[in-house]
Design a protein that fits this description.
The complex is a heterodimer of chains A (343) and B (345). Chain A has 343 residues and is an all-alpha fold. Chain A has 14 helices and no strands. Helices cover 60% and strands 0% of the residues of chain A. Chain B is 7% helix and 48% strand. Classes of the chains: A mainly alpha (343), B mainly beta (345).
Chain lengths: 343, 345
Amino acid sequence: MIDALMRLIGQVQGFVFETAIQPVLYGLGLMDWAEDVFDGLEIPLLGGLAICLTYLLFRPLELWRPVERWAERRAVRTDIVYTLVEKLGLVPAILFLLLTPIGAMIDGFLRFKGYIPPTLEQIFPAFVAWPFVTFLVYFVIIDFGEYWRHRLQHGLSWWWALHSLHHDQRQMTLWSDDRNHVLDDILSAAWSGTIAILIGVTPGEFPLVIIGFRLIESLAHTNVRLDFGRFGSALLVGPQYHRVHHSIEHAQPPFDRTKGCNFAVILPVWDILFGTWRRAAEFPPTGVAALSGPTVRCGYLAHQLAGFRRLGAAFRHLVNRRRPGFVASFPERPAAPYRDAAA
Amino acid sequence: MTGYLLSSAVSGRARPPSFVADPCSVSPIRSIRLLRRAAAITAACIALAAPAGATAKTAIILNSDDDSLSVIDGTTYKETSRVHIGRAPHHLMLTPHQNFLIIAMAEGNELVFIDRKTGILARRLELSDPYQIGFSPDGKWFVANSLRLDRIDIYDATNFKLAHRLPALTMPSHIAFSLDSKTVFVTLQGSDKLTAIDLVSGNVLWTVPVGRQPAGVWMRKSGTLLVAIMGSDHIAEIDPRNGAILRRIETGNGAHNFQISPDGKILYVSNRVAGTISVLDADTLAVKGTLNAPGGPDDMMLTPDGSELWVTGRWRAWVEVIEANSGVLKATIPVGRSPHGIFLY
């Protein structure tokens, strides 16, 4: 069935490219982009599939056992735009155009110096015969990298200024996973690119499994009263686990907002290993305490502009400590303990 | 043989380049489990050992986006197996002595050598981003282009030691050699240029514009070059001494690659945008006909008797088998994503 589905997606991809896109590339004299555009077409196709699956699987959960109910869902609509922009390929296209030449330049330079980025199969030759195992090992390593990237997103004031866009949503839903500033996306891609130079890129043979991982990330943001339990929460990041990470108040001892807890993206083992795991059977309200109003409840472009302003404030504070900086990075007032949202 | 087979599958990193002289210089067996997995890989390759016949008995297709290799039965036109072979396999070719089939793994940074007689995966050799590959006619030089990193690597083919590494204009792609094996010609697909490089010195002899997004390049027996102009609808005949364009022959939109018939009389040109194959008289370059090959025709290969033309359909994940004389489509065979290189036995 999976093969048949991939075959169908591949045929749609080929048909659309051959009949609609390739003639345009040819007419514009851009046939040197043909392979890249063809490969890139997979992003909106698989992204569209991911969106459909996310909605069909998780929206019923939100209707069934929501943590919060809102009379007005305008802020959610912005997250839908974020999801469409990300999963249908606009942001990935920007990242590709911006970062691919830089990555190729660095990679090319290293090769002229005699360094060939290895793949895991070369480091551990036994993996050659086990492509799916190789894929899973890559996944674990990349998830480990994501954990530390996430730690830095909270730990570095200027990066937190950007990442605060992801956190300032007080109506967190299945759509909230892609709510990120474009500069944050660029930094994340650069982070992934650095890992790729060290261990190579993940094999491209299992795109549907990658969709599965994206679904887990969307589920983690879903507005549902769902707890995997003590054992399950140690195995896989779920809605309750991640909701605690998104808690509006992280300042409750021993946690601190800029440090936070439950940073893991998919595998909680990293939080357990590095002491950031918080097991709390609560469903706190989400958001950033210092951020509310129009800077949070706004459209996509206004939200992106707010991100630039927050980043500017953070940098000004780094240059001159007397400047106020990005207020959410440096809470001056003691935080109130958070309450269960349903309370 | 078992140890030979196993070690090749698990060898990974390059050893000293001794495979030609001593392909059996292997490490001991590591485990039964690995042996089984290695055997699974080889099971697909072993079909290569099938004897050549009038038509293709076995076809090897490289699925570049799937990191896999499809083996197709040339009599039933069915895919008999598909195995993981390594990262981004794009092109493949025989070594000069035809002992090994080399598969170039661009993202895997390696060449995979398959013993032609036994079909056994003989070894993996680390090599930086080999996309297009080619041996000079005298077998002394091996050239590997990195399309992604804009680089042309020239190796001593006897030991695969790097002789020259040249930065290139954007997207160095297809390769051809002069008949005297002194010069390599490379199309620079991201530009409108063709470049000529002296193999001994590594010096660039000339780089000239030949047409929008040049792709395939072919050295004729007469000594002139042909370049497929992918951004246009023609091939260009080029003077290899200076890159001067001698004439243009219209074929079809997106002219991409060449394939000569076994008797050397017919030249086929794949037209990627038009979805056709142009049939040319190899001597006069007169267009004799056009074959339909939808799906982004890319690499081609003919059966030994020239009766069937096999074409990879890059965009539609299939291989088409066309009767060369009549142009009848005999089979469309589903394979993995983005099939590129093809080899027939």
